[in-house]
């Protein structure tokens, strides 16, 4: 594909072409930077861009001529992580001027695999709900979703093929779906969180975004420093559970239509699909989420609350932190117990399927930049610690992307990614090309 | 030897509240003791003027909160905005964090004084720092929370932070003859604490009495309901022999035996908690998870500053790099399945009595073996160490009580009962 501009390539293609001498890492980075300079005034995906440093790193990589897992692939890092040589704000004015000395693992591991960190992408305030300036690249009056707003928008807009996000409620899967990219939130704890600003430690999960499942598989190997084999699309069609879930009434018509159509197409391609719904132990997920977030969130935000309260957004203070002050230990404990029971029940439930097919968000992105949308289709899975993958699968009434979500068995992420590869091969890669 | 530094935190709080003691005097007495006893090498950073200024500010503010000016030692893997945080590693020499860790901010908000930074092993793993055992400098105080345990045991301050990934609170507490509390995983906010293995890392505390440990944990969570009102009446305590039982030394066997006798005589219901096969593989699963996660959470250091990592830590990281994701996933599944069986394990008991360490503190080259702490850390259960006995070298030997999932307050009440039964005086 000599006519494809480098910034539009998949990560797997970049690695192959750079390794084969068809393309230089410098040309890839230069192409991404050029596209960013054109698009950034509208999309506003970046909190900090290290263009010169990235170009130098790319030239160094080209000179060394080593074949590496992510050789020459640019990536973006949500500004909830530290990276040496870049400021870290965590989406809050409190940290203006803070330059950490070391890399978060989510930066160090891809860099060690030959990836080139372009910069920090916009996060909502401490990965909560107060949005940054990012817009949806498909239409700037719509939200890109959050909290990993900049990462989703940057990948969707071809600014960078790979980016890192975090999910405490629905902050990887929802923005990925709103922006029409592939988002992967692994089993809780799979990707290392060192160097990430903690929000709610029992839920915070590092995740990744890309424009294909194949790129997710590649990026995952780099993030884990594990051996990589180019994945083959499985021959066997999976057994899927179609879960409309307790919030089906909150879904928008296009969300429902895309899910039902995707289920039909996957069934036509050979998947066996059975309707399924949350086990009763999992019914209180929303209340549990609020309790865990309020208790842990208040305490993890105490450094800011104690010294810089006026610089926290009123939304954060008045909602999550205020709830955290009121929550009794018994209520928190009850939420922990209920979450543990729900995780156990969900583990048993998930054994019946290769993956559960469900919605990643109510529908297309809301028409606002003041709110990042609802996480009701994500928070339960985050709490159950189950791996989640969203694929673009259709469009809404305003032409914005609508996705589907596949949810796998906890600590069996490879099985989920295999289902994702199969599903992607049957549904196509959305409008990503 | 008669200064306020020897007071329990609870007694100090009473005097601070009554106005018969000021936070400044208390901080000054602690700093004096620290200076006198510098041979223990418990501290990596002290700034007496800053500490005294903090104490005076608390005095001026009317000594608020649960802690009312009580000084707290901060393990040096926990960020402080006003003191360096060096993680026991030359890589972080002079490192100045931008903000406090959540648990330090919670301490300040509760009226605690941050006294200084205590020695940690490198990255809270097993390469020892300079600290020696306060009762015998030829022996280890245990680790990784070496300076915190030694400092509290030596009467330098009433409270200190520890972190436990394998056995870094309960083991040094046992070696140093003090109370160590590892609360339920997730009870104490971890933002700003250097991660080693995030699915295991638990912030805990050292104290010289159970009431003090409860006071500290209540302050750190801003939840006064964690303070036990009274000792648990007639608790049901299971006697459990975790694997590898053959590693239990005579000193620990004697400590467990003595504890069993005294608890029984005081009115506890004691019974054997029989074999529980679901827990047998947990120490191994904990090791797999810890090395896998450490290799990845210390990725920046490993990949960019590898020559500055000590061999013992480098070995852990190399081991972790070699663990396959399939083996890691299997260990995580093992842990999840075992956690789901805790209700059955504790069906007839409020707590179980188990070893806190194989025996008394070994000689200085190592920080001791955490094998009897690993399973409980992996299970995320609350656990407390109480001093109970002396070993062949005359050093302390503790016992460990492990509570039901999430029932930290109940464990404190049981520990109060046990403290009285064992005749422990702070």
End-to-end separation of chain B: 15 Å
Count of helical stretches of chain A: 14
Q: Report on the biggest sheet of chain A.
A: 11 strands, mixed
Main β-sheet description of chain B: 11 strands, mixed
Outline of the structure:
The complex is a heterodimer of chains A (433) and B (426). Chain A is α/β, with parallel strands linked by helices and 433 residues long. Chain A has helices spanning 11-19, 25-43, 51-64, 105-112, 149-156, 173-179, 213-224, 253-268, 285-300, 302-308, 314-326, 329-350, 379-383, 413-427, and strands spanning 46-49, 74-78, 116-121, 162-167, 182-185, 205-210, 239-243, 272-276, 355-358, 388-395, 401-407.
Detailed description of the structure:
The complex is a heterodimer of chains A (433) and B (426). Chain A has helices spanning 11-19, 25-43, 51-64, 105-112, 149-156, 173-179, 213-224, 253-268, 285-300, 302-308, 314-326, 329-350, 379-383, 413-427; strands at residues 46-49, 74-78, 116-121, 162-167, 182-185, 205-210, 239-243, 272-276, 355-358, 388-395, 401-407. With 433 residues, chain A is an alpha/beta fold. Chain A has an eleven-stranded mixed sheet, sandwiched between helices. Chains A and B meet through α4, α9, α10 and α12 of A and α4, α9, α10 and α12 of B.
């Amino acid at each position: 594909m000599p006519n494809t501009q480098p910034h539009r390539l998949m990560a797997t293609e970049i690695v192959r072409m750079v390794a084969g001498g068809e393309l230089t890492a410098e040309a890839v980075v230069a192409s991404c930077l050029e596209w960013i300079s054109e698009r950034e005034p509208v999309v506003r995906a970046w909190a900090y861009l290290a263009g010169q440093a990235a170009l130098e790193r790319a030239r160094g990589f080209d000179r060394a001529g080593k074949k590496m897992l992510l050789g020459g692939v640019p990536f973006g890092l949500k500004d909830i992580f530290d990276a040496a040589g870049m400021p870290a704000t965590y989406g809050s004015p409190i940290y203006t001027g803070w330059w950490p000395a070391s890399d978060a693992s989510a930066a160090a591991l891809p860099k060690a695999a030959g990836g080139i960190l372009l910069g920090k992408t916009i996060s909502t305030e401490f990965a909560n709900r107060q949005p940054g300036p990012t817009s949806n690249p498909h239409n700037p009056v719509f939200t890109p979703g959050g909290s990993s707003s900049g990462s989703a928008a940057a990948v969707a807009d071809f600014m960078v093929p790979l980016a890192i996000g975090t999910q405490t409620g629905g902050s990887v899967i929802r923005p990925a779906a709103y922006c029409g990219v592939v988002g992967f939130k692994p089993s809780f704890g799979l990707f290392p969180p060192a160097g990430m600003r903690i929000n709610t430690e029992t839920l915070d999960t590092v995740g990744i975004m890309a424009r294909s499942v194949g790129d997710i598989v590649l990026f995952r190997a780099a993030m884990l420093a594990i051996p990589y084999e180019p994945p083959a699309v499985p021959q066997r069609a999976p057994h899927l559970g179609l879960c409309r879930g307790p919030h089906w009434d909150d879904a928008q018509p296009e969300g429902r239509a895309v899910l039902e159509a995707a289920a039909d197409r996957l069934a036509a391609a050979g998947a066996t699909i059975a309707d399924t719904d949350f086990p009763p132990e999992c019914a209180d997920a929303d209340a549990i989420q609020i309790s865990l977030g309020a208790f842990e969130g208040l305490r993890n935000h105490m450094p800011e609350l104690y010294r810089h309260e006026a610089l926290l957004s009123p939304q954060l203070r008045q909602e999550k932190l205020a709830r955290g002050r009121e929550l009794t230990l018994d209520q928190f404990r009850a939420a922990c117990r209920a979450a543990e029971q729900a995780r156990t029940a969900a583990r048993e439930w998930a054994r019946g399927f290769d993956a559960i097919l469900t919605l990643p968000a109510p529908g297309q992105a809301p028409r606002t930049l003041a709110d990042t949308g609802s996480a009701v289709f994500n928070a339960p899975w985050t709490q159950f610690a189950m791996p989640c993958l969203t694929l673009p699968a259709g469009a809404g009434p305003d032409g914005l992307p609508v996705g589907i979500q596949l949810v796998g068995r906890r600590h069996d992420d490879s099985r989920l990614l295999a289902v994702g590869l199969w599903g992607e091969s049957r549904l196509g890669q959305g409008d990503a090309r | 030897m008669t200064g306020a530094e020897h007071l329990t935190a609870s007694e100090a709080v009473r005097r601070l509240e009554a106005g018969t003691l000021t936070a400044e005097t208390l901080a000054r007495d602690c700093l004096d003791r620290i200076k006198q006893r510098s041979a223990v090498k418990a501290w990596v950073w002290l700034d007496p003027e800053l500490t005294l200024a903090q104490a005076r500010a608390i005095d001026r503010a009317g000594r608020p909160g649960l802690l009312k000016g009580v000084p707290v030692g901060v393990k040096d893997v926990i960020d402080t905005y006003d003191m360096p945080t060096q993680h026991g590693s030359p890589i972080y020499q002079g490192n100045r964090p931008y903000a406090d860790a959540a648990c330090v901010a919670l301490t300040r908000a509760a009226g605690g004084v941050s006294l200084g930074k205590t020695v940690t092993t490198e990255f809270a793993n097993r390469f020892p720092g300079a600290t020696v055992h306060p009762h015998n400098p030829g022996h280890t105080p245990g680790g990784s929370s070496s300076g915190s345990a030694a400092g509290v045991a030596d009467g330098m301050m009433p409270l200190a932070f520890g972190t436990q990934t394998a056995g870094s609170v309960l083991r040094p507490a046992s070696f140093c003859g003090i109370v160590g509390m590892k609360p339920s995983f997730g009870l104490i906010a971890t933002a700003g604490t250097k991660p080693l293995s995030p699915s295991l890392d638990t912030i805990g505390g050292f104290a010289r009495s159970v009431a003090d440990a409860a006071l500290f944990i209540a302050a750190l969570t801003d939840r006064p309901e964690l303070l036990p009102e009274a000792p648990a009446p007639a608790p049901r305590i299971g006697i459990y022999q975790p694997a590898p039982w053959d590693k239990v030394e005579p000193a620990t066997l004697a400590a467990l035996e003595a504890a069993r006798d005294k608890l029984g005589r005081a009115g506890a219901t004691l019974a054997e908690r029989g074999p529980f096969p679901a827990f047998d593989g947990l120490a191994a699963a904990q090791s797999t998870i810890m090395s896998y996660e450490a290799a990845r959470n210390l990725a920046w250091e490993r990949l960019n500053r590898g020559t500055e990592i000590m061999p013992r830590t480098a070995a852990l990281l190399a081991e972790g790099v070699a663990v396959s994701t399939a083996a890691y996933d299997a260990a995580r599944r093992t842990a999840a399945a075992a956690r789901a069986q805790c209700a059955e394990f504790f069906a007839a008991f409020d707590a179980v009595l188990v070893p806190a360490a194989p025996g008394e503190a070994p000689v200085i080259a190592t920080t001791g073996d955490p094998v009897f702490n690993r399973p409980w850390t992996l299970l995320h259960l609350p656990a407390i160490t109480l001093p109970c006995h002396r070993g062949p070298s005359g050093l302390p030997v503790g016992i460990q009580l492990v509570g039901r999932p999430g029932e930290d307050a109940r464990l404190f009440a049981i520990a109060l009962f046990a403290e009285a039964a064992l005749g422990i005086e702070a």
